[in-house]
Specification:
Shape: elongated
Order of helices and strands: HHHHH
Radius of gyration: 31 Å
Number of helices: 5
Strand content: under 5%
Structural class: mainly alpha
Length: 157
């Protein structure tokens, strides 16, 4: 209301620079209010969803539920902030760039962890059964020792 009154007063006084500035501020106000409302409601919903996830520990019976809930809360805070700032008219390309880099890093880390887990976990199984899989080789009746990757004994040197 006050901004509209200031706009009318600036127009009546014929102060063009002040009139343009107040007009721009008044036109920006709905987008600002909508963005602030998105951020506030989004933070409340993010807290609610994270609390629901945190209280599912009795169902999942794991100790990582709180860590997952906190990670979900931070992710939802980031998403809501980016959406709210975008609604306000703020340029959020740099936030999108950081989010994309973080997503690629997380994906690479998960892929590497899965690859290492399967590689190290299946090493002994493959070493014991490789003879069955290759044509023309007789299967080993005695599995290789598990101590060394090459099946040899440890040296005492």
């Amino acid at each position: 209301m006050y901004a509209l009154a200031l706009l009318a007063a600036a127009d009546a006084l014929a102060v063009e620079l002040l009139s343009e500035w107040i007009s721009a501020a008044v036109s920006y106000l709905p987008a600002f209010v909508a963005g602030a409302l998105i951020i506030v409601v989004g933070f409340v919903l993010a807290d609610f969803v994270a609390d629901v996830v945190a209280h599912t520990e009795t169902v999942t019976e794991t100790s990582y539920t709180d860590v997952f809930a906190d990670g979900l809360r931070v992710f939802l805070y980031f998403v809501v902030t980016v959406i709210g700032l975008g609604t306000m008219g703020v340029d959020v390309r740099i936030l999108n760039t950081f989010a994309q880099a973080a997503a690629w890093g997380l994906a690479a880390g998960v892929a590497l962890a899965i690859g290492i887990a399967f590689g190290l976990g299946g090493r002994d199984y493959v070493a014991a059964n490789i003879g069955d899989w290759l044509p023309g080789r007789a299967p080993d009746t005695e599995p290789a020792p598990m101590g060394q990757p090459d099946g040899g004994e440890e040296s005492t040197d």
